[in-house]
Amino acid sequence: MNDFQQNPHALSGAREHRLEVAIGQQVREYRTRLGMTVADLGRQAGLSAGMLSKIENGVTSPSLSTLQALSRALNVPVTAFFRKFEEQRDATFVKAGEGLAIERRGTRAGHQYQLLGHTIGSKSVVVEPYLVTLTETSDVFPVFQHSGLEFIYLLEGEVSYRHADKLYNMQPGDSLFFDADAPHGPEELHRLPIRLLSVIVYSRQEEG
After folding, report:
1. Residue 93 resides in a domain
2. What tens digit of pLDDT does each residue of 68-93 get?
């Protein structure tokens, strides 16, 4: 029987420990910003160096009065110690075949794009992972050109993929990482169907 089965409070205990660690990291960060040693901050807050070291290492949970003393010594609000813990950690889970269908240049040429996730919140960097499926040939293939970087990984089929003035013959397991500002795209489809993973990364300032 594992610990969680033996102790129904183990999960909440783990969460509390993460809170202690987050508080300790913030205390250390503010202290180092001010160029203070552990002994310096301990004297200012009325704490022993040993106790302060335990707080910074997440070994002990500081009382509210201790947090108030630290906030005065560091000249920050008490709530500042909880910021790391309260930061949202999101995830996007997509079941097989349920990616969001996206219309992009090339869709009419038999190119299917499924968006597998998206950047959540006001992050400065945007990441867009796509599953791209090519199921039919066409006389005209689109040439893409956009800001940021792109990584493609071929899962199935064979394709000659162009980037700038170079042509790469790709088979399953091959990958290509490139500056997406240069013209790029599939030029010759040798074996269908073709499935590839495409991950595009760009600055939010360049969005749109």
Report:
1. no
2. 999 999 998 888 888 777 665 667 77
